[in-house]
Amino acid sequence: MNSGIGIKRRGFIAGLLGLAAAGCTKVAESRAGKSIFDAAERWHAGAHRLLGGRTALAPEYTPAEISPFFRGNGTLNPSSDAYQASLAGNFTDWRLEVRGLVRHPLTFTLDNIRALPQRTQITRHDCVEGWSAIGQWTGPQLSLLLDAAGVREDARYIVFRCADTLAGGAYYESIDMIDAYHPQTIVAHLLNDEPLPVRNGAPLRMRVERQLGYKHPKYLTAIEAVASLEDIGGGQGGYWEDRAGYQWYAGI
Amino acid sequence: MSDRPAPKRAKHALITRLWHWINLACVVVLFMSGLNISNAHRRLYWGDWGFAPEQAWLSVPRFPGWATIPGHYDLAEARDWHNLSAWIFAVTLLVMWLSMLANRHFQRDLVTHRIEWKPSAIWDDIRRHLKFDFDHGEGKYNFLQRVAYGLVLGVFLPMMIFTGMAISPGLEPAWGWFVELVGGRQSARSLHFLFAWAIAGFLIIHVLLVIAHKPLDLMKAMITGGREDE
Domain residues of chain B, as ranges? Predict the structure, then answer.
């Protein structure tokens, strides 16, 4: 008797919560709901920039704090023939283009990238799912490449093109000029003093240290300066943003 | 006219009532969307980092759809709900704290006194609660009530905001000292989870005690304001 009522009551509460959740989905899918969410995201970004400033640094750690293994996520080994051939040839044919709204489009080999002034930083990688790993990354600052190419005044975003596809879609990401010129935003080719493992983005990946992991694209092939994100991919500024509605500002 | 008794004060100020219900809505949305976010990675760690079972101090169960917002696994939408209601939750809590200091609700009704912390006094209070006698003590609330409300308003709810801020990588450049204070980002995430359940525990006890006492009168007072002597 007692347990019967207990189950009924639990069913009732579950029903109420389910109703609330269904209502929430309706709100979230409405245009007003979406614009409120977008506004909240902008307030977070604005508050972060206001409190931390444009160039405040993400924490850096000591070598003793490096995780014994750096977990990979998303694509762990791009399956395309071109990537596999490049991997077999130790990436000697890999090219990184800097293009779009720049005065001098450039193409870098890995040797070119290694010859630039390098920054080494031991930082924490935070996945949107919740886990974290600490690793030491080395590579030139993105600002060096952008200055060499001469970014035009009308460029507002930097788009990163990648060699990997997930579920048939090409991976890409984008950041604004503040993060693009942030001192810790580097094009990494070393992890813990070794060439990047394939699971972590060999041969090149971005580090955008004040944002979550999906903003650090791997298998980097091109850096593109653009005025708008509307005509790129699904128009939301990144693979996960297009596909699953992830927040473009991933500093939260 | 002049000998008419002065109108009695409302038991709950308007700001208290507004905050109470807005905060309830925020806590429910934050908790349920938080359970959805928890489903994205169901392990908790201490320290700065952690990603594998061998580093975890707790494996969290998968929370069913009826307990999450939205009702199916959707990390992006859950984060949208979480990040929006976090603003309302944090700003209204700040407003509530400023107003209850300004209108002296805190000093008058919530502060405890040293004499009440004597073990014998606390034990006496617990015994009265066990006998369903809640209207003892001098002020508006008895000792255990004031301790519970003080703990929720002063520790549990603010800690949700602070540990939430400590999980956020975009805020950390400005906020690094706090992340260090709680022992690293993964510690902050673990504390965020623990305080969320502490608040859920408070909510359940709070509702049960209201039901056990005078549910209709207490609900009415928290909506209309009620009268001071009720």
Answer: 14-224
CATH of domain B14-224: 1.20.950.20
A225 sits in which H/E element: strand A220-226
Contact across the interface for B84 and A36, Cβ inside 8 Å? yes
Interface touch B69/A24, C-beta < 8 Å? yes
Nearest-by-CA chain A residue for B37: A129
Q: CA nearest A130 in B: which residue?
A: B41
Q: Which residue of A has its CA nearest to B188?
A: A130
- Give the architecture (CATH level 2) of A58-244: Alpha-Beta Complex (3.90)
Residues of A in contact with B43 (CB under 8 A): 131
Coil, strand, or helix at residue B192?
helix
Mean pLDDT taken over chain A: 92
**Core vs surface per residue B96-125: b (16+ CB within 10 A) or e:** bbebbeeeebbeeebeeeeebeeeeeeeeb
CB-CB under 8 Å, A14 with B169: no
Q: Would you call A126 and B169 a contact, using CB atoms and an 8 Å cutoff?
A: yes
Residues A16-66: tens digit of each pLDDT: 666 666 677 777 777 888 889 999 999 999 999 998 888 899 999 999 999
Does ipTM surpass 0.90 in this model?
A: no
Residue A72 with chain B: CB contacts under 8 Å = none
Which is more confident, A146 or B106? A146
CA separation for the pair B49, A126 (Å, rounded): 9
Q: How near does any CA of chain B get to the CA of A192, in Å? A: 16
Q: Could you give the angle at which helices A2-29 and A31-52 cross, rounded to 10 degrees? A: 80
Owner of token pair 């004031």: B146
pLDDT of residue B176: 87
